[in-house]
Amino acid sequence: MKIIFSRKGFDSKNGGVASPIFPDASLRSIPIPLQQGRPLRDCYAKGVPVLSDVVRDLTNGRKSASTIIHLDPDLYADALERKPGWLPTFGQEFASQTRLANFGVGPGDLFLFFGWFRRVEKREGRWRFRADAADIHCFFGWLQVGEVLPVPADVTPLVATRPWLADHPHIDPAFAQAHARKRNTVYVASSELTIDGRPLGIRGGGTFPAWSEELQLSANGRTRSKWRVPIWLRPDDRRPAFGAHSDLTLWEDIPGDPAHVLLHSIPIGQEFVLDADHYPEALPWVESLLTKNAPPVNGGVTLPVTASVTVPVGQAAPVDARMSIMNQWEDVAVVRRDLGADTTQRLKVPGGWIYRTVIVDERGSRHPETAIAMCFVPATGSERPPR
Predict the structure, then answer these.
(1) Which terminus of the chain, N or C, has less C-beta within 10 A?
(2) Among positive and negative, which fits the CA dihedral 60, 65, 68, 74?
């Protein structure tokens, strides 16, 4: 297996600001602006908060709902109204695709997408970056390759067999025609993630619902390009270097942390390829990363198998961090107040529903404080939000 660290989303050149980490620790990568694409207002329109409003505030109006974006990699299920059969997809071309092809990247290989992130807060009705928050590089999504599809100038046959692909920017007829001689290629996710032939109960592609220490690449207290990575990633004369990091001066010991090393990551390049044949330590590392942070196939909730029959109506349900998945919760009711709002949401789980009420209050505190009340309601019982 090859593991590809792929840099995507807003950066200093494309967009000019970091993507947000919201107060509940959820992540949302902002697609880069590009002349060929779709308006930001057409993407994530049902999100809470609406992403175009967040982008407008964070860029001080330089980017807005009318900004044309390149929705790639296309990982968020809620980004658009999806056609049946949709799978996460990533497009590449030019020299970057040539590099991936030269490494033999294909079915079974795994992209880990990372980008520039910073924590945000909402003050006086506007989103802004927290003054005390660091700029970091952080993983936000993954895609295990199920298919590699060269994109022809005429995409009609391709879309005829996979209608859902028509929404991907690399399949847009005008884009495909203009990039026909530029190795335009899409990587389609597998249906389920496997490591060494073992299914992990995780979708073949998607996004991490929330920031965690494991997902953060940047070392605390250092600039975002200084990464704290496992010591086994340091190159030696027995195996090829990770990406373009063969210069040993880019690697620095971390006093008191013998299991890790500081990597001065290079500022250029979209993809860094790690071949697990040469770095077998990468397989247990990436399996741990994904099983701890990616939502499972069952819809993003981990509950004991007996929860649906042993938890009475209205009683608090067992939960874990993977329950805060933005695109799985359904709004049931919103009660607005002068200084905030109470939103009741529900999430379908085996045996019933999880209800939660999110209370956001901006009454003069430095950061909005969010309280969540949560309980379980069996499918055979009342489906009205419990009081």
Answers:
(1) C
(2) positive
Model confidence pLDDT, tens digit, residues 120-168:
999 999 999 999 999 999 999 999 999 999 999 999 999 999 999 999 9
pLDDT band at residue 36 using 50, 70 and 90 as cut-offs = confident
Q: For 40-98, what is each residue's pLDDT tens digit? A: 999 876 666 789 999 999 999 999 999 999 999 999 988 999 999 999 999 999 999 99
Which three-class secondary structure state does DSSP give residue 171?
Answer: helix
CB atoms under 10 Å from CB of 117, counted, come to 29
- Burial label for 157, CB within 10 Å (0-12, 13-18, 19+), is exposed
State the burial class of residue 188 (Cβ atoms within 10 Å of its Cβ: 0-12, 13-18, 19+).
buried
Among residues 159, 138, 1, 19, the alpha carbon closest in space to that of 89 is found at 159
Cis bond upstream, residue 230 (ω within 30):
no
- With 0-12 / 13-18 / 19 or more C-beta atoms within 10 angstroms meaning exposed / middle / buried, residue 91 is buried
Instruction: Show the tokens assigned to 83.
Output: 């056609």
**Placement of tokens 């602006």 in the chain:** 33
Q: Which fold has domain 307-378?
A: Nuclear Transport Factor 2; Chain: A, (3.10.450)
User: Exposure of 362 by Cβ count < 10 A (0-12 exposed, 13-18 middle, 19+ buried)?
Assistant: middle
